[in-house]
Every structure is written in C-alpha cells, then in structure tokens.
User: Fold these one by one.
Assistant:
Number 1:
Amino acid sequence: MQSQNRFFDDIARVASGAVGAISGVRGEIEQRLRDQLERVLVGMDLVSREEFEAVKAMAAKAREEQELLQRQIAALEARLADVGKTRKARSSTQSPEGKSDRQR
C-alpha cells in the first residue's frame, strides 16, 4: 500500500513540476511576444494617446479661430460693399457742377 502511495506522490510531484514549467514557459513566451510587439510599434512611429489628444485639441482650436476669422471677413466685406454702394449713390445724385468743383 505504501508503495502505491509513493507512486502517486511521485506522479503528483512530477505533474506539479510540469505545471510549474509550463507556467514559466508561458510567461517567457508572453514576454517575448510583448517585446516583439513593442519593437514593431516603435518601428511604426506611432504617437501616444496624450500626444494625439493634445494635437486634436490644437486642431479644434485652430478650426474655431478660422471660422471666427471667416465670419469677420464676411462682415467686413459686407460693410465694404455697403460703403461702395453708398458712394455710388452719392456720386450719382450730385450735379455735374459739384463734380467739377471737386476735381479742381
């Protein structure tokens, strides 16, 4: 009976050692895969999430500023067109004598 228990004890120790070895191999494989993946990602010249978010915020701010400037330009162009219309209207209502006085 004791020999049978020893046999099972030995099998349990071997199995336990095999499980430990497999766990070690698994950890080593995972580490190698991580290292390889890191090398590939570095070679791809990717940016970090923080850098991406910073540039995204800068682009959004630049777009807002551009839209504001476009609205300001449109308003200035409208004012310029109104001034041009007003001058034309004034010059057409003046008498020819008034024009000649100005030209002197």
Note: Helices lie at 2-43, 49-93, 96-103.
Number 2:
Amino acid sequence: MAGFVDPRRATAAVEYAATGNASHASRKAGINRSTMVRWLQDSEFQRLVGEAQSPEPSPEALKSLADLVPKAVEVVEQGLQGEASVSAARIALDVIKVAAQMQPKGSTDGTPPLADLIAQLDAKDKK
C-alpha cells in the first residue's frame, strides 16, 4: 500500500477479507453497501483485500497501517470528548485493533507490542 489509505477503506478491506460478506464489511466500515460494491470493482481496493487475506502482511501494508494509528488515536480521543461521531470513533478503534493484531511480536526497540499495552489499559479499567 503506497501512501494514505482511508481508514474506512482499510476497515472494509480487512472485514471483507475475513468474511467475504459485503454487507457486513460495509456496516463495520460505516459506509453504504453500494459504496462497498463499487470499491470491490476497484483494483486498488482488490489489492487491499488481497493483502488482508495474505498470511503475512507486506512491509508496505504494515507501514500504511502504522501511519494510520496516530490519526486513529486522535479520532478516538475526539469521540470521547464528543467532538467526533460515534461511527468515526468506532472505525478508528477498529484501525487501532487491526494494527495491534498485525504488529510483530518481537520489538527490537524495547517497546512492548501494542496488544500488550491495550491489555494493560483493559486491566486498569477493570480495577
């Protein structure tokens, strides 16, 4: 994936790759089903779906997803403050979750994987 990928397209591609269901993927991405059908005919979107289906994400896919995380965190924060729509915050949270799932387990810079950080935050919320 080269350059910026709209978080809705990324979410739709991942959901469609996982389920093969355009209605489900469009709901999860917060788009109309007709938009999803149009995207399915787009070669760039088909490539996104293919990357989401492949067992090992390409370095480009990982970088593109990592590039989306700061903006996704910002949108979630805005959602918590009532400055962004609930659907935008949910899509952003899905982007963060996908990024956590795709992050390599062994970090060479000493930082814990994003999934570990999310688990720590969840544990604090339960206390």
Note: The mean pLDDT is 81.
